[in-house]
């Protein structure tokens, strides 16, 4: 499955915001960009999509920044996809020709299964995985 760079960066930025989430703390754009090695110019566009999707809040100014709009356990990968790359889950197969209907139904089923699996993964679980310490021998 091919994931766009935009969707990957959105997930990574949200994991950083989930790690800092306490309902009060704001994370600055430059800090997010640095931690995830992402261009700040590209990241601000992604954060705007996430804000419009209701997943984050922002405050302008010297003490401004970004924060999750709600707890990380209530944000799913499906919501992130819907906010940043809604076409990712759209089925574009056509029901033309003798086999078109069967092929279209198969892709619809696969798309629905993917959507259901995306609902099962929360930002909290991603954040916990990202925070697990690595041990080297």
TrEMBL record:
Protein name (Swiss-Prot/TrEMBL): RrF2 family transcriptional regulator
Transmembrane segments annotated in the record for this chain: none
Matching PANTHER family: HTH-TYPE TRANSCRIPTIONAL REGULATOR YWGB-RELATED, WINGED HELIX-TURN-HELIX TRANSCRIPTIONAL REGULATOR, RRF2 FAMILY
Source organism: Luteolibacter algae
Domain of life from the UniProt record: Bacteria
InterPro entries, per database record: TR_Rrf2-type_CS (IPR030489), Tscrpt_reg_Rrf2 (IPR000944), WH-like_DNA-bd_sf (IPR036388), WH_DNA-bd_sf (IPR036390)
PROSITE patterns: HTH_RRF2_1, HTH_RRF2_2
Pfam family, one: Rrf2
